[in-house]
Amino acid sequence: MSYIAEGYNSFETKKTPSGTVKYLPDPKSVIALIQSGKLKEHILLVQGGTTTFLAPALSMGAIGVITMSGAPESHLGILSREFQMPCVMTTYLTDSDSRYVTGGNNDAHFAAIIKALEGKKVQLHCEDRETGRIAIVS
């Protein structure tokens, strides 16, 4: 299996959720997704591990999360373990040298990840203790 992206694994699990990636940039987008009734069809893509506005989606049964920054010790890492929801953090595209830089300007890095993943059907693979992987599903 080839992986389009990798990152830190929040916790080791055999769950391999599949869904269409939905980028959620703000609280309004989270509420709209919840109200659509289609939350469980999506893997949620957010900018950081401190994205607290995602909490309502987690408590309502989100199936997986991808973050573009943050570590397993961050807010979303902790919540993903509590909810036993696979979470790949500080994601990078496997065919790119671009990586998240703490304190740097990461706009181009984030834009490339959003462009590569949003709207794509993916599956999260979090069975490795350290690395979470994201595969495109056809």
Automatic annotation (TrEMBL):
Coiled coil: none annotated. InterPro entries: PEP-util_enz_mobile_dom (IPR008279), Phosphohistidine_dom_sf (IPR036637). It comes from the Bacteria. Residues 44-90 form the PEP-utilising enzyme mobile domain. Pfam families: PEP-utilizers. Gene3D superfamilies: Phosphohistidine domain. This is PEP-utilizing enzyme. It comes from Bradyrhizobium brasilense.
